[in-house]
Amino acid sequence: xxxxxxxxxxxxxxxxxxxxxxxxxxxxxxxxxxxxxxxxxxxxxxxxxxxxxxxxxxxxxxxxxxxxxxxxxxxxxxxxxxxxxxxxxxxxxxxxxxxxxxxxxxxxxxxxxxxxxxxxxxxxxxxxxxxxxxxxxxxxxxxxxxxxxxxxxxxxxxxxxxxxxxxxxxxxxxxxxxxxxxxxxxxxxxxxxxxxxxxxxxxxxxxxxxxxxxxxxxxxxxxxxxxxxxxxxxxxxxxxxxxxxxxxxxxxxxxxxxxxxxxxxxxxxxxxxxxxxxxxxxxxxxxxxxxxxxxxxxxxxxxxxxxx
Length: 308
What we know:
By secondary structure, this protein is mainly alpha-helical. Helices cover 61% and strands 0% of the residues. It contains 18 helices and no strands.
């Protein structure tokens, strides 16, 4: 490759190349699923291309030439421009010699730039597990970590709770956005009530009570079944401080949690577990909770009384 700044040199394999309708439709679908912003859109904006959503994907060969020209005219460092061009070349269907790999070698694109762009490309294509193979590489300096974490938490096609947790514990992004905090904590709470509880304690006074209430809600608002029964038992056995005990009772009696399914029963059994209810077995009578996977608060209360 003589000069990546010359379109005919960069696309020497096919100077008339244009994106297929199928490729364009796939990219647009992925953008819609990511709340109308791909990660390549963010990168194009860092190059000063403000109308990235209109520029990418290019609809014709001339649009591709215009996009190439805008990238080259950017005042950004060459490695940044080359990284975006590498991403665009990855859009081209595999040939005997993949143009993106040939390009990366020709311009000596640094490994960490290539790894990051590979990860972002797979993330934009909703191939999340494959994306994390790249985005959790130790050589990378985290870029867009909060946005990546948020996408892993809320994308409708991403249902593996292990992926956002793996990314968080590997990269350790500082979560300052309320939107990202709520999304990540929702995943963490579904994964482990106990882990979510202790994690929330470390998030500072400004966030803690809201997360504490979100944890309760995530348990009681879940679909009935064995998982909800298990998580409910885990919730009522958490080691609350005196203040947390007050929050718990307040949320389920006077707060937004009072209308949650099983709110009264949960509070009553919590009092029994912590020894704040009477010793009379009648404490377990009249519970309104429905069975969930063979377990309900009434049977739990009766079992508790037998071992006291």
